[in-house]
Amino acid sequence: MSSFSTGLYGSTLSSIVGNINDAFSGKTSGIDVSTVVGELMQVERQPEVLLQNQQATITSQVSALTGISTQLTTLYDSVNNLKDILGAFSQMTSGSSDSAIVSASADNTAVAGTHTVTVSKLATVSSSYSDYIPSGTSLAGAELVVKYGSDPDNPVKTDTIDIPSGATTLQQAADYVNQGNYGVTASVLTDSQGSRLVLVSNSSGAAGSLTVTSAATKFTDLAGGDAQITVDGVPYPSSTNTITGAITGVTLSIGAADPDTPVLISIEPDTTQAAQAIQDFVNAYNSVMTSINGEFTAGSTSGSQGLLAGDSMLRTLQSELLSMAGTSVSGSGPYVNLQSMGIEMQDDGTLQINNTNLSQALSSDFADVQSFFQSVSGWGQAAGTQMLNLTDPTLGPIAADINGLQQTNQSLTDQINDFEVRMSAVQDQLTAQYSNLNTLLEQYPLLIQQTTAQLASLPGASSNNQG
Description:
This protein is of the alpha+beta class. It has 3 domains: 159 residues, no CATH class; 73 residues, no CATH class; 101 residues, no CATH class. The protein has 11 helices and 17 strands.
């Protein structure tokens, strides 16, 4: 029995004896059965308290393991981003010698290189406007025929717009057009001479050019035109000023026409995203390693270790991560391990980036660094496989550890439930015993009175009393 249980037992026994003595001496009429039984049950339940304390410890251990598991998943994701052929190391960036004329953006299908772009003409949007509509009249009931394309005899498509008779103002006619599924947007232009209905094509370029006819009024058409550029000397027309397809994986945005100013467009690997992906990996790795180290390191004041200090699985996980970070590979030029490119291991197992070395590697030997992380025999593939095993939701070490703790916790729950059944019977037994004792104690004063009366009634009791 623990010292706590022994002390509690002695205190409880002393309290019960005191209650009984008070009842015998007449200070009380009996004992408080409920209080006495409650104190005894507190002693009886000490084994259950120990079981509950074990469960509380297990709950804390599972919580700590779950936190490390979450950090491990973040680390897994960061490794995948490094080894993914469509991930950070596949991102490209672009530049322009004159972004006012043409700017560029590149996706991960772009190929590194330099291109010359000349912009001769911007794409324009076609519009058409009606003659002035006399005050007091409208286009109610009119039919508008809108043809799209540079050749009205062979239009790309045709819209026939029947203005309803209820549209008694030009604004109502414009609202009707805009509510329909037509290829134009309508508005009303009013100046000192009157009002006109204006139609603007929803598509730029020659294909969106408007030819508008109506028996109600004459329309004046302003044609749209295609953008005209050359890419590396090859003509490339476009109906819009945002051009995709002229350079694989690159979107060109033209903002001004200047046929006399060739613009250089450069496409190169995005070293900023690659460096950030490496930093994300280091951060994720350090988070896991710091949490594990914290379980094994005694506190500065209490000298105690973490709840998982005795967990052999955690030691194994720490060893696995250290092994992963120190793994060397071949076939990636001068980069055989993380340290060779500036990702250096510290005494506590965490990693630190030497930014000068890493920047030099990314700027001078990007292809070799990429190969280190992404080739079939590279570090990224090996680390990815290792992380896949470590984060397996069933067979991974943390998952297995948590499962074992949960099984132990369930076993403790079963023991507590069984113990509660026994305690219920013990409580009933103690209640019955001390209720009987209380009955005797309550009868004790009456028995004393009866005995005293009987003694007083005996012959000679009065003379004896007098003598």
